[in-house]
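Input:
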Amino acid sequence: MKPVKVGLLGLGTVGTGVVRIVERHQEDLLGQAGSPIIIEQIAVKNTNKLRSVPIDADKLTDDPWDVIRNPEIDVIIEVMGGINQTKEYILEALASGKHVVTANKDLMALHGQEILAKARENRCDVMYEASVAGGIPIIRTLIEGFSSDRITKIMGIVNGTTNYMLTKMTQEGVSYSDVLREAQELGYAEADPTSDVEGLDAARKMAILATLGFRTNVALEDVSVRGISSISQEDIQYAKRLGYEVKLLGIAERENDAISVTVQPTMVKNTHPIASVNGVFNAVYVYGEAVGETMFYGPGAGEMPTATSIVADLVAVVKNLKLGVNGQQAAAIFRDKKLMSDEQTMSKNFLLLHVDDRAGVLAQITQVFAEYGVSLESVLQQPNPTNPEAEIIVITHDASRASIQKVLQVFESLDVIRTVKSAYRVEG
Amino acid sequence: MKPVKVGLLGLGTVGTGVVRIVERHQEDLLGQAGSPIIIEQIAVKNTNKLRSVPIDADKLTDDPWDVIRNPEIDVIIEVMGGINQTKEYILEALASGKHVVTANKDLMALHGQEILAKARENRCDVMYEASVAGGIPIIRTLIEGFSSDRITKIMGIVNGTTNYMLTKMTQEGVSYSDVLREAQELGYAEADPTSDVEGLDAARKMAILATLGFRTNVALEDVSVRGISSISQEDIQYAKRLGYEVKLLGIAERENDAISVTVQPTMVKNTHPIASVNGVFNAVYVYGEAVGETMFYGPGAGEMPTATSIVADLVAVVKNLKLGVNGQQAAAIFRDKKLMSDEQTMSKNFLLLHVDDRAGVLAQITQVFAEYGVSLESVLQQPNPTNPEAEIIVITHDASRASIQKVLQVFESLDVIRTVKSAYRVEG
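Output:
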């Protein structure tokens, strides 16, 4: 049996995990894939750095092109990150007939279609299970498990950092800035946390999931994004009282053939399965017309979970190699993209208003909702203990994004409303 | 493009769902599978019965052999149920080069290895995603998603009927016999509910999951089974008070290369993700050495969820047909089976004892535990309001099944213990 030779780009946390799994589970992998698997060469930044796994020095190079151009290598595993330069490596690897396994969500969200087209052209596999929700085999599930169904909604907690932060804020009552500092100290959040807390990381993953789920090409700029940095303890406490959890939710929806993809803080009814996903865990909830509700739960990141997904992809590539069928996955994309308008995008909404504490205010406000056809599920008015305002909390029935925007515009010019403190989508 | 022709054995609930999906989603299926799919012939018991989907009368036959021997047919979908006769149909279909998709857990649990061997011999596919946990693509996940990991534990709520019953008993305080009657009236439980309530249905599914997860041939007789019929409201209320939910749990475990598979009522800590799976929903929790905790949640039965899994299998068969690689899935089984002894099988345990209400009883009891090396996590003693006994509730730390059995034997001959009211495994 000819061994399959692998070139690794990057030997950080995840790359080290890949080396560990391939070495520890040689026998299992042989049983699974039918061929021995050898890590042939590894591109690293610093060839002299001490590693936590034993690696022959002569397998290391500091030039990724050495790996890409190594004629011995059958499969490239890319775990170095980066976008433009990394894309060049991958395109060149595919051009020379090498298969690619990558964990790079940024790359796949931005250039996935170009890379997949290049792969088909060269009859090569590109697999990227690890790019979304680390250890959860959700990409495989969307491509194969639900191939016969029409998926109409995908909701994801796909960023562990923000879910950890929101869980802490909910369970321990700490402020956004305190929990961010703590997450940074624990290494869950980066020194510049923008990509996580402003929802960009989640948006990339949702673009990938929506592309697969709806089989249409969803680009990053199609995703409307709002992060968690403006969430206050007040919001979280109100949510709790009303039976909701505040989660940063990616929501991809399809109505007929128009789609909408958003990432935004959302109040999720606490009886919904996704409401109980806490800490750094990820979960993807999928609604299919035929199957109904399903949810996939697991670790969203980390050395070993992510490496598991990468090596599972590697096993799939090796099986295809043995069968001679690489690069022949049916094209996933076969529908034209049509985005929902703001008039078509419907959801329930939570609004927290600070208003003048005098007679007739509630009547004025509810009249504005009525004017724009927004009906209300519940209204709660109470005095604000700390100042002479009253608070009004409204949860609407399903209303279009357009009508809610119009209501909010009118509220800005309404004398009796001092501030619209918060506005959130509501699910479940 | 030559269409792929399907023969259907059975047109009950699930068969009807398959016809519905294939007709409704022709365009999507063509995009997925690359070939049109035609339901060519259907074997039914009564060809004159009125159907809820429109079907050409000349496609119906009351003899399954007509379908098996129809040379036009490429793929057989078996949704008629049954074991011995059905096995003959399937073996003959494979012998004549037809691929098989089945939802038949009984057949796969009892004769899976023989059927899979016959399939390999004839280069045919046999797929059975729908046989376990209806709409959840768990078989695909175990074969492919975790191919690189070493799975050490699978816990499943894989019988919707009993989970519905236990959920009702927990949430509404109704008795076992009342909830059984209600489940029968709703059609969730059959007139003879034995297979569900005594855990046999779950055992068949666990044998299939353990075989795939541990890649060793687990037979039905390897599964130790206990049903839910002896669970009382008292047990459920005590569980609640201590922070547990009572679930009928299938548990497959591996320690080194020895395995254990059981189905039994289990007290699950209410913070564990599987504890919140309620009603007729199913969930499979998978623990992998590398990936850690994952869980897959969804509908366990029903016309459309089950049909979705069947048609997803059908799409996979059609893709393989186009690639010419049917029957070439790497053999999943490559480990010899070794069952754990009772000395090796470890778990926490819950015991509810009714004892004489006098001094020194607790000391006597705890001494028995100590004698057999069982250490205790918590002990609660309280008077029993309805009679002159006291109740003692013990939760042990991890202890071997053998030592718990010895403790229970001694308890039988201990004067101060009137009854061991309940004994359950504890998880989470």
